[in-house]
Design brief:
Layout lengths: L2 H17 L6 H15 L5 H7 L11 H10 L5 H9 L25 H35 L8 H11 L9 H5 L16 E2 L10 E2 L12 E2 L7 E2 L12 E4 L5 E2 L12 E4 L5 E2 L12 E4 L6 E2 L7 E3 L4 E4 L12 E2 L21 E2 L12 E4 L5 E2 L11 E4 L6 E2 L12 E4 L4 H6 L11 E3 L3
Parallel strand pairs: 1-3, 2-4, 4-6, 5-7, 6-8, 7-9, 12-13, 13-14, 14-16, 15-17, 16-18, 17-19, 19-20
Antiparallel strand pairs: 10-11, 11-12
Helix pairs in contact: 1-5, 2-3
Length: 447
């Protein structure tokens, strides 16, 4: 640890002493941000504080102005003064602020209650309106000062784009007030391959939607925080964001349309908030490294029961989206459009009895899945459901051949073997299953 890192560590410890609180959770950082604003009437974002404490993994080089505010919060004139004290080995001792009332003189004139009361009433009549006006002016000045504070962007590429498009006063910064006036992003970020982190996106509090393909092709974007005003995320909004690692869809979002995270191939985990009411098809398609799917327990429309690592539609027991670690719940009735599409790393899956239909592209391009058993309750397999899978064997337990859409098994190896229940081979052939590629033959089970 170099000298500055050591001093910053001492500053963190001093701040926790003054705040009388350890910085361990998001609520702690919210508390500290509010406390700084309450005392100094200037804003230090929770994101900046989280980086300074190492709560977020992004590298941090705090501005001197930010360090000055933090030093002033603990009663030191500036960051430079705090450094000097630290280098001299002076331990930080918080000042106790207290007020002392001076005792009244023993030689006061006799107290006239009526005259004093009259004077107090006159004073209150004149002074109270003035004090109220002063308080209102102070409030608006403080609010304006906070709103005009520049956003501390972690990513200079994001800052450059934001300043270029929304810096209305031309000061080379984007303030909280300027960000809060933005109502449309107008595809500013679409296809940009330079941006890495956009957690300050949460400052754009007048946006109601992330529009179609808004961040499409931002292949180096690793993290982004959705604003609290967003109600809908439209089609393909984060398509090809191939460096996204974790996604948190907050409680305010109500609708996610189709293919929102299509081909986010390094996405590892996603949390779906309590507000989601509708999810489109192929929602998590081609996210092969996804291993954790969690739906808020407060969501009344969807769930991830028993930590199944899937999004289940609660009322219908339909599996909407899964990943390579999904354990398909026993009560599942259907697999939705694109439910496991592009799960390249999935090697095994158990489809329980009770499933009646498998949707379009449900297992499209699952190249590591070399065999599958279809439940006896299955009645329908829709178009391209197993397109380009590398099956060596398919076992169907349905005594009545399920209806096939088009190109259900297109692209499977020519020597794949289809095994069907005893006495049903002719029925499967008549139902058109041999039109698919089962070069290894259609055989009946021995038992």
């Amino acid at each position: 640890m170099d000298t500055q890192d050591t001093v910053i560590a001492q500053l963190r410890e001093a701040i926790e002493t003054v705040a009388d609180r350890k910085m361990r959770t998001p609520k702690d950082f919210d508390f500290l941000s509010d406390a700084i604003f309450e005392k100094l009437h200037q804003k230090v974002s929770t994101t900046t504080l989280k980086r300074l404490w190492g709560y977020l993994s992004e590298p941090v080089t705090p501005r001197t102005s930010t360090l000055d505010l933090l030093a002033q919060f603990i009663g030191v004139e500036s960051w430079e003064v705090f450094q000097q004290q630290a280098q001299k080995g002076k331990a930080f001792v918080p000042k106790e602020e207290s007020k002392h009332l001076e005792p009244a003189s023993h030689h006061e004139a006799p107290y006239n209650h009526d005259a004093s009361h009259s004077k107090m009433l006159r004073f209150a009549f004149i002074a109270l309106p003035i004090l109220a006006i002063i308080a209102l002016v102070a409030f608006f000045l403080h609010t304006s000062s906070a709103d005009d504070a520049p956003i501390d962007f972690a990513d200079p590429a994001v800052k450059a784009l934001c300043v270029a498009h929304w810096d209305t006063n031309g000061d080379g910064e984007l303030s909280l007030k300027e960000a809060a006036h933005v109502t449309h992003l107008d595809s500013v970020f679409r296809g940009d391959t330079t941006i890495i982190s956009f957690n300050e996106f949460e400052c754009f509090t007048r946006l109601e939607a992330i529009e179609e393909k808004e961040f499409q092709g931002c292949k180096n974007l690793q993290s982004i925080h959705i604003p609290p005003s967003i109600k809908i995320i439209r089609h393909n909004a984060f398509e090809y964001c191939q460096s996204l690692i974790h996604m948190d869809i907050p409680a305010n979002v109500e609708v996610c349309q189709s293919s929102v995270f299509y081909d986010c191939e390094n996405l590892q985990s996603i949390h779906v908030g309590k507000g989601i009411r509708a999810i489109g098809e192929s929602f998590l398609a081609t996210c092969p490294n996804l291993v954790s799917i969690e739906v808020s327990e407060e969501n009344s429309v969807f769930d991830s029961r028993n930590h199944c690592n899937a999004i289940m539609e609660t009322a219908t027991n339909r599996l909407i989206a899964g990943c390579q670690t999904t354990v398909v719940p026993q009560e599942t009735t259907a697999l939705a459009y694109g439910a496991f599409e592009g799960c390249w790393l999935m090697k095994h899956i158990h489809l329980p009895e009770g499933i009646t239909s498998i949707g379009i592209y449900a297992f499209n391009w699952n190249v590591s899945l070399t065999s599958i058993e279809l439940p006896g309750t299955l009645t329908m397999i829709e178009n391209n459901a197993f397109d380009c899978c590398k099956f060596m064997s398919v076992v169907s337990h349905a005594t009545t051949p399920p209806t096939l859409g088009t190109n259900v098994f297109r692209g499977i190896p020519n020597d794949c073997v289809l095994t069907v229940p005893q006495g049903t081979r002719a029925a499967y052939i008549a139902a058109g299953w041999t039109k698919e590629v089962f070069g290894g033959g259609v055989v009946e089970a021995t038992e």
